Amino acid sequence: MPAPLDDRDGRRRCRDCGDWKLLEDFCSSSKRPSGRGSYCKPCFNERSKASYAKRVRDERGREVKAAREVQEGHRFCADCGTVKPVADFPRNRSDSTGYATYCKPCHNARTRETKLRLYGGDREYHLRRRHGVGQKEFDQLLAEQGGVCAICGGEDPQHLDHDHRTGWVRGILCFNCNGGLGQFRDSPTRLARAITYLRGTTWQRALIHPGVYQMCSPTRGRPPSPRS
């Protein structure tokens, strides 16, 4: 007869391995008053693996590959077939290990292949994901601008500018103009003050005494006359 499974001082005997263990070492079960099942977690995991292997064998007619043994702090990449330190794998919160299945080179190669297959390349992927338009719409907008930057008129602009508040596309700018708007935080007030500043503060060096100079600005009046 099987050994009794009665709990003894917060402990239970596993039906498979026969060891007495703490209740928290058993899997959860809503069918038992204690809320814990009849098998400890290691035995339950082995049972689950065996059940899955049998189901795959019966339904799909193939065998489940045995888990690969790797040393601690390392991970097997299924693409290149090598064992590498976990630092060579990208982070992945959805994986129980915290790391992705493929090492960084293989992960990057898969990402490039996906972008090429679904979007035709990095450029189309970037435009679609970030702005909701493609290269075709980009070219049409650039043609409407006469093929130049919408601000400075420079040739061959490549940056699609958008309103950071609404996400709407505004135009196509060169690198400097696009970066300039970002530095001014898309604020018309800041840009207007910058224009006023440029128009009204042209500092010059004025001689006020032999060998002595003073910086002056039109907004602060004329410098004192040099002493005779």
From TrEMBL:
- GO molecular function terms noted in the UniProt entry: endonuclease activity
Q: What species does this protein belong to? A: Micromonospora palomenae
Q: Which domain of life is it from?
A: Bacteria
User: Which lineage ranks, top first, belong to the organism behind this chain?
Assistant: Bacteria, Bacillati, Actinomycetota, Actinomycetes, Micromonosporales
Alphabetically ordered keywords of this record: Endonuclease, Hydrolase, Nuclease
Provide the transmembrane region boundaries. none
Specify the protein name.
Answer: Recombination endonuclease VII
Membrane in keyword set? no
Q: Which Pfam families match?
A: Endonuclease_7
Q: Which InterPro entries match?
A: Endonuclease_7, Endonuclease_7_sf, His-Me_finger_sf
